[in-house]
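Researcher: Please predict.
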Amino acid sequence: MTQTSLKRSSVATAPSQPAWLLLILLPGVFIAILDVAIANVAVPGIGAELHASGAELQLVVGGYIIAYAVLLITGARLGDLSGRWRMFLTGVAAFTLASLACGLAWSAATLICFRLVQGVGAALMVPQVISLIQLHFSGEARARALGWYAAVIAAGAIVGQVVGGVRMLPRDDGQPGRKLDPPGVLSLSLAVFALVLPLVLGHELGWPLWTWLSLAGSGVMAVVFVLLERRATRRDLSPLIHGRLLRSPGLVAGALAVFVALGNYGGILFLLTVHVQSGLGYRPLIAGLVFLPSAIAFAPTSLNWRRLPERWHRRMIPAGLMVSSLALVGLALSVRSGGINIGMELSIGLFGAGMGFAFSPLFAFALAHVPPANAADASGVLTTVNQLGQVIGIATYGTVFLSLFHTRADSPHAAMITALAMAIGAALAAAISLALPPNK
């Protein structure tokens, strides 16, 4: 074993690091995820203040998501090359400065540009979190850390200063011998961009021809990416996603389950926001509070699943996803009344509880067999899948809802059909999760 690997091993098991490490890392995830939700709720006010068109408002929200999703895997590789802490702090700085600029934006065009920079900062920052958890935690500590990570993504419950512990950060100079793989970066970025852009703007613009051509082009670039990565693997040229990573037991099944489950999460956020505000006529504050039972239920379930017997842990994933599926059926039945009622709130809370029981162990089992050397690549894959799942979920379920929603009177029926469609999606995620292998 080399001195470098010995140094890494000692860092990975240092008992004095985990508690404060999460206090530095998780607020970064929080602000990146929170920013998407804030922009969604603030869109009506932004449109009035900046006189933005519908397409511009879509780009205010979507520009951040596009830049974020396109660059996540590249951000993970850059952390692998230049040092994860260095890249994390670079992302924090870029995100913070761009956030300040967004507050000072004087037009819709400048706000869109600053939002794109925000997305770049988030893409540099967030992938480093899973990588550092993988490298600095093991066993029970890693499972708990991933539980906190999942809780922050879904509930947004972490508050604090991101850079408060900069002087305490452990040394991390990156991984020697890795390269950036420019052909892989370019082809994957084009594939993701060509997929996300029409999904964000398609419905608003009436799905013109270019959106369909872009979606087709995304598939072509995905094939090109796979071929380039295979060639890079054969030639030992540091492919962006190495074949051995995809062969890690549980990663592919876990990533697919995360993709479908996060599609439901994005879908229910969109559904409740539009149904409560545009359909029922409530203020944005009420739309935000409607989802509160889910966040309250998610936090304790996602953080305490390790207290249950170990033999239950893997079974909790499909069970939790099926609970969320049943909760969505309950939501479909309760929204038919045309108002906010106790059945609706109980269903939303049950959805959060089911997701809490499933989501945290899902991350743990998906990453359980990934070698530490591939931690950065695995973090890029999962965070990209996370974001793409939400974007595609919003686009898919949003299209279902909006195709049925023409006047306020249509909203209860449209919400019911959309919730039933999401229930099918949650059941599909549960079925996919059955392919996860036992933990180590």
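Model: Residues 1-16, 155-166 have pLDDT under 50 and may be disordered.
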